[in-house]
Amino acid sequence: MNRRRRIYEGKAKILYEGPEPGTLIQHFKDDATAFNKKKHDVIDGKGVLNNRISEHIFVHLNSIGIPTHFIRRMNMREQLIREVEIIPLEIVVRNVAAGSLSKRLGIEEGTQLPRSIIEFNYKNDDLDDPLVAEEHITAFGWASPQEIDDMMALAIRVNDFLTGLFLGIGIRLIDFKMECGRLWEGDMMRIVVADEISPDSCRLWDIESEDKLDKDRFRRDLGGLLEAYQEVARRLGIMNENERPRGSGPVLVQ
């Protein structure tokens, strides 16, 4: 990969130029970060797990007609994706009170919300990704009203799919964060789901025990982050049932 031009490096991934125009290679790192990289560690095998879990989800999204940037997985750490113009917003869908929502509104974590709530955060690490309203988004030109409608429609569809997917393997989808991008095809543009969907970007609780199977294990110093991600991969059927955590990283089903 060193022979390819690096386009961008974020907290958990690196983007390289792709083999064909309009494509990129998305490389998943082992870095674990929280609070906009104020907390940082490297956890061997995390990137491999996120690559495979995100691939599994994006393949299903594509198959049910939800447009994404994903083309195919290339190897254990890399995906071939379509190049998109990332919209500088995080779309957060909340089904159950947790995290910052509980703190802001004084709602006990684990409280089922009356309905799913969609929030937008402006992607800016220096500002700690502040919560913004639709008025901010349109006033500053981050997205048009139609694009906001398109992103919300995609978020609802993704939430419906993920809720059912995880419920079927004994996991409660508390909330998740996704990103969208503008995919240009000639003169035509459409909004697609981009970035990744993995335990890094979802809150996932075991239905029976309420054990956290997501990045909150790192945020809250609970330990066992790799084991939690492996458990999600096992339940999704993309990791061998008898595989045990090891320093060299997990062995996944091909």
Shape: globular
* End-to-end C-alpha gap: 22 Å
Please, how many domains? 2
What is the CATH T-level topology of the largest domain?
Answer: D-amino Acid Aminotransferase, Chain A, domain 1
Describe the protein.
This protein is an alpha+beta fold and 254 residues long. The chain folds into two domains: 91 residues, Phosphorylase Kinase, domain 1 (2-Layer Sandwich), CATH 3.30.200.20; 122 residues, 2-Layer Sandwich (D-amino Acid Aminotransferase, Chain A, domain 1). 28% of the residues lie in helices and 32% in strands. The strands form three sheets. Strands 8, 9, 10, 11, 12, 13 and 14 form a seven-stranded antiparallel sheet that branches. Strands 1-2-3-7-6 form a five-stranded antiparallel sheet, with helices on one face. Strands 4-5 form a two-stranded antiparallel sheet. Strand 6 and strand 7 form a beta hairpin. Helix 1 packs parallel to helix 6. The radius of gyration is 18 Å and the shape is globular.
